[in-house]
Amino acid sequence: MNDEPLDSDLDVQTLLVHAGNARRNLRSTALSIYPSTSFIADSPEQLDDIMAERVHGYSYARHSNPTVDGLTDAVKRLEQAETVIATGSGMAAIDAALFATGLRMGDTVLLSRDLYGASLNLVGKVWSQYGIEFVVVDLTDLQTVETTLKQLRPKVMLFETVSNPLLKVVDAPALVKMAHEVSCQVIVDSTFTTPLMTRPLTFGADLVVHSATKYLGGHGDAMGGIVAAGNAKYHDALHQYLKLRGGVLGPFEAWLIHRGLQTLAVRFERQCANAWELATRLEETGRLRAVYHPFLASHPTVETAKRLLPKNLGGAVVTLELDGGRREAYQFLKALKVVRPATTVGDVYTLCLYPLVASHRNQTEEERLSMGITEGTVRLAVGLEHPDDIYADIVQAVEAAVRV
To answer: What domains are defined for the chain?
Structure first.
C-alpha cells in the first residue's frame, strides 16, 4: 500500500479527509495514541487472517487497538501474566474475569465478606439473575473457608488483597492453595496493592483485576480496568468478552494510564510513606475511636500483613472511625480544607470517602456492621502532599466534628 503523502493538486475536500494520515517511519519515545476506530489491512487475505487471529494485527477498535496494546503489554510484564486485557472500568474488569471463568447456571461464587460494595452487588444482583449462586464468607477465618470450600465446591472465589475500606489483609497464598484443592478458580482484586506490593499470579491466582482508574493511572483523569491471567487458556474468553460485550478501553484513556504506570513506583512509595506516618500520628492523638492501617499493631490482621506485604509498603489508604455517627461524619467532610471529599483512591491528592453514601451505600446496615463499617467510618486515600499538611487538616476536621 502506498504510504507517500497525497498529491497537493487533489480537491480540497479530498485533502481534508486524507491529508496528514500517511504513515511515517517514526520511532517515538512515548506511546502513540491511535484514535482510529478501524484499521486498513494490506489485502483481504491479511484482514481475514487478522480477524481469525491467525496473525497479529488490527481491524476494529472493539477487537484491539495499538495504544491499548501498549498498556496491556506493560501490565503483562508487571504481573508476569500470560494474557491481559484492558476494560472501560474496574467493574467491567471484574465482570470480564467472572465471564472468563466459564460460570454457568447453578455454579457458586465464594465472595469475601469484606469486598468493595459494588463487587458484592455485581455478583449478588447481576450474576445471580443468570442462576449463579453466591456465598459470603469471612476469608480471614481460614478454617471456615476450608470447610465452606469442601462443602460447596464453588467454581470461583473472589477477594481483595487488602480489603476496602477496613484494610484487612487475607492470607492470599493459603486461600489460593485451598481453592485449587477443590478445583475452584481464584480472582484477586489487587487494586489497593498494585504490582509493587503483591503479584498474585506468582503464587497461583488464576486472574488478577485492577481498577486502573486508581493507582495505575494515578491522576484522577482516566477510567479503566485490567484483567491479567496466569494461564493462556483464558485468552479467548477474555477477548470474546471485549468483542461481544464491548466494554473496551479507549486509546486516550489507555495512553493516560500507561503514562501513569511510568511514575507508579515513585508515587506509590511516597503515598505509602505518607499513609504510615499519618496512621501512626493519628492513632497517637487518641481523638478517634479507631485508626486502620495494615501495619498498625492494633489492626486485627497485622501479623498477616507483616508476613505477606513488603516492609516499606503497607498501602496508601488509612481508615478512621470517628466518634459519633452520620451527623459527625458529614461535619468532618465539610470541615476538610486540604483533603478533598471524593469517591476514589490513587489520585495525587488526598481524598476522603464516606462508605455509607458511596462505596457501601447499597449494603444493608446489618451487612455493613458485619464488615465493621459504622456510621463513623471514613476512608482516606493518602496523596502526595506533605504529611504535616494532611495531618493538620484531618485533626482540625476531627475537632470540628466533635463540636457539632
So the answer is: 44-261 (3.40.640.10), 265-403 (3.90.1150.10)
* Whole-prediction pTM: 0.93
Q: Which stretches does DSSP call E strand in 269-338? A: 290-292, 317-321
User: What count of other Cβ atoms lies within 10 Å of the Cβ of residue 131?
Assistant: 11
Q: What strand order describes the sheet that includes 377-381?
A: 290-292, 317-321, 377-381, 351-353, 340-341
Task: Round to whole Å and give the CA distance between 176 and 306.
Answer: 19
CA distance linking residue 132 with residue 102, whole number of Å: 11
What gap in Å lies between CA 187 and CA 95, rounded to an integer? 11
Q: How far is CA 112 from CA 186, 357, 371, in A?
A: 12, 21, 10
Confidence of residue 112 (pLDDT cuts 50, 70, 90): very high
Question: 127-175: per-residue pLDDT in tens?
Answer: 999 999 999 999 999 999 999 999 999 999 999 999 999 999 999 999 9
